[in-house]
Amino acid sequence: MTGAWPHGSVLASAPAATRMIILVCNDDGIRSEGIRALAESVESLGDVYVVAPDREQSAVSHSLTLHRPLRVEEIAPRQFAVDGTPTDCVNLAVSGILPMRPGLVLSGINKGANLGDDITYSGTVSAAMEGTLLGIPSVALSLVARDAFDFSAAASFAARLAAQVIAHPFPADTLLNVNVPGIARERMRGYRITRQGKRRYGEALVEKTDPRGKKYYWIGGDELDFIDEPGTDFAAVQDGAISITPIHLDLTHYPSFEALGRLALEWP
Length: 268
Ligand code: MN
Prior knowledge:
By secondary structure, the protein is of the alpha/beta class.
């Protein structure tokens, strides 16, 4: 892979005594065990700042708060709780809270998978997306589990990967979406570089009636039901391997240019 992160120069020109700042964010809220495990795991790699939502913000996607003020509370040294979305947190951190531009953004470790098409809803991935948009190498990390969340293996993998990302830049406009299977470290079958899989959407909607006789709906179905294709993020975690998917923020589908070039619209 070629291409360098555009802000390497900021770090290169920093005084020798200044360590790189690592910004840690999530969408499960600053009190989640996943963000603690992640922040602790990278302490030796830089000055770790946690800037995260003050409550759970899962599935808020890449939303930015524009119509009300945002409040920031420093709940401990270098730990800031924000009453906003993951995207707000990364934005505020980089443009105001941090004393210096971070060299790395880590988001997670999320309680639950962020695989396939589901990443478009993900607050975890969106925080990394925001970091990428700001030109900072960014990684989203998720633990593929439903109830028993042991973040230790995922956190130590995160630290190893973070060290690699700092040492070997990967292309701009790209983030890494990492999903760690929720199994014991000894049982894991390495890691794989994967592509985004496809979810099988089923009967995810639950219709019920409220005590006043009115219907309401519950969007549920977070069952992991994916189309089983080799090489995908889903296949990797299914096989007990950690999945690393490079996600490119340019959503243009280049092969469509040819088909769309045949359009014969009369305009104006
Ligand atoms: Mn979450």
